[in-house]
Design a protein that fits this description.
With about 350 residues, the chain is an alpha+beta fold. Helix content is about 55%, strand content about 10%. Helix 4 packs across helix 15 and helix 12 packs antiparallel against helix 15. The longest helix is centred in the middle third of the chain and has 32 residues.
């Protein structure tokens, strides 16, 4: 712990902060707030009630208004702190509100109705985490089925992406043939084609094959990615050709070279592509929404759309389920993040 503290508080100056230190810590603080602020807001908002989500001004922590059960009233009444004209402050329960007038009662003497202006009252609140957002969301949301579908799609699509892209990158980086550079540039040029342009043609192909309402219709179309081919090709260029020539002299086939030499040496780049692919597949919404119409095949992202109706959006349940959908991808990223710097930093180096 002391080592971490010393690392975080180190300065360029001898004994005190220099101007460069001030700018550095200011930049890092702002960057941390910009990156983690929305995530913290998302997690805390997932514990808020529907009323707490729409209140203005908004609050960071989840607050809930205190209520009290009063004899003669079926539902619990909300508690308010009321300041009267003479300066006295009393805790009253609100029965109803009519325009700018609130009809209140004293819980100890509920027979008398006290009429006050709404500006004279302040709600009595305390920090409360609405765990029912998660329990209700899971009960109304087929979370287990959608989670399984998302895991199947993500795992199989990632494996297929790694295989297809690594074979293409191996050919483009280690074989010499006519048109190799042209194929590579055409592959990269597909990055400039918007997704909306190819949605209809790909959907027609999927329909002809019969992969509508089938997880294969989500897994297969995005197997080959120009980003993955570029990343792996640039990394494989750093692998010495002498290793491959030595393996061929020893009688190794091209498949053996690919499996036992290229893939192990390209592990950092494969890990980076795996992280990207997992994030792409896990967060994909538009294409599964187009291909899938039966709820038993929905992924988590498409399933979240069920909480959004034409007249009402259940933001408290959407936020709670969104937090749950972020947990698996966060765990995978934390496990593989050590390969990101190595894979990207060494890509394209000779």
């Amino acid at each position: 712990m002391s080592t971490i503290l010393a690392f975080l508080t180190r300065t360029r100056g001898k004994k005190r902060l220099s101007f460069a230190d001030f700018l550095t810590y200011l930049y890092l603080t702002l960057g941390t707030i910009l990156m983690f602020g929305p995530i913290i807001w998302l997690v805390l908002s997932s514990f808020k009630t529907p009323t707490g989500l729409i209140r203005f001004p908004p609050t960071i922590l989840p607050y809930r208004q205190e209520t009290i059960t009063v004899a003669g009233y079926d539902d619990p009444l909300e508690l308010y702190s009321v300041t009267f004209d003479d300066g006295t402050v009393r805790q009253l329960a609100q029965v109803r509100r009519v325009g700018i007038e609130a009809q209140m009662i004293d819980p100890s003497a509920p027979d008398e109705i006290i009429r006050v202006n709404i500006d004279q009252r302040e709600p009595i609140e305390n920090v409360s985490f609405a765990l029912e957002n998660y329990t209700e969301g899971i009960s109304r949301f087929n979370f287990g089925r959608y989670l399984w579908n998302s895991v199947v799609v993500t795992v199989l699509a990632t494996i297929l992406t790694l295989i297809v892209n690594s074979m293409a990158a191996f050919a483009l980086s280690k074989y010499q043939f006519r048109g190799k550079n042209a194929i590579f540039f055409v592959t990269l040029s597909t990055l400039m084609v918007p997704l909306s342009v190819i949605l209809i043609p790909v959907f027609l192909v999927i329909t002809q094959i019969g992969w509508n309402n089938n997880l294969l219709g989500i897994i297969v179309p995005g197997a080959a990615t120009p980003t993955g081919v570029f990343l792996l090709r640039q990394y494989m260029l750093t692998i010495p050709d002498e290793l491959l020539d030595s393996a061929r002299i020893d009688g190794a086939s091209e498949w053996r070279i690919y499996l036992q030499i290229i893939l192990p040496l390209a592990r950092p780049a494969l890990a980076v592509l795996a992280i990207f692919s997992i994030m792409w597949r896990w967060n994909d919404f538009l294409w599964p929404l187009i291909v899938l119409s039966r709820t038993e095949y929905f992924t988590l992202q498409v399933g979240l759309n069920s909480f959004q109706g034409e007249l009402q959006v259940q933001w408290n349940l959407i936020l709670a389920m969104t937090v749950l959908t972020l947990l698996p991808i966060t765990a995978v990223f934390a496990f593989l993040q050590k390969y990101i710097t190595t894979g990207i930093a060494t890509t394209g180096m000779k």
